[in-house]
Amino acid sequence: YHVIAGECERMVLTQMRQNTVRAVVMEHIEAREATRLALLLSSLKQSANALSEGLLLKELCHSHRQTQTEVAFMLGRSVSWVNKRLALTDRLATNVVELVQAGQICAHTAQEIARMPGDVQQTFAGKVVTEHLPKSAVERLVTTYN
């Protein structure tokens, strides 16, 4: 077994005389791979950027062949959270990603836009920016469109 995440928490809780700690433990994994997964998980915990989180999640899911359910469990997040972050990297048009990076559209709004076909995302995102549409309005419009 390799402890992938939770080792620092375990040490602190042991000093505090706590009996249990959440940890990620993987069977049948090489030490090098365990280190890589630990670094990715650590980066995700420290990331404040939804796009960066999406890229790291993509690495975990695709390169490390982890399922969204496994990744969600490792991070203490919902499968829905993982799916939405992945949508930002997998389904969002490049120019819309640039709007998110520039701070013109928030990640939550971009997650909604990612539900639209790629060929209409740029035009729709442009309207969201020029009309200063809130996420709730974007959500309704995307649902109506789809």
- The span between the termini is 46 Å
Q: What is the arithmetic mean of pLDDT?
A: 79
Q: Beta-sheet strand percentage? A: under 5%
The major beta sheet can be summarized as: 2 strands, antiparallel
Which structural class matches the secondary elements? mainly alpha
Indicate the overall shape: elongated
**Unreliable runs:** none
How many separate domains make up the residues? 2
Strand line-up in the sheet with most strands: 1-2
Number of strands: 2
In helices, the fraction of residues equals 55-70%
What is the number of helical segments per DSSP (H or I, 4+ residues)? Answer: 9
Radius of gyration over C-alpha positions, nearest whole angstrom: 18 Å
**Run of helices and strands:** EHEHHHHHHHH
What key attributes describe this structure?
single chain, 146 residues, mainly alpha, 2 domains, two-stranded antiparallel sheet, elongated
Give the arrangement of secondary structure elements.
Layout: E1 2-5, H1 7-15, E2 24-26, H2 31-46, H3 50-63, H4 68-75, H5 79-90, H6 94-101, H7 107-113, H8 118-131, H9 135-145
Antiparallel strand pairs: 1-2
Helix pairs in contact: 2-3, 3-5, 4-5, 7-9
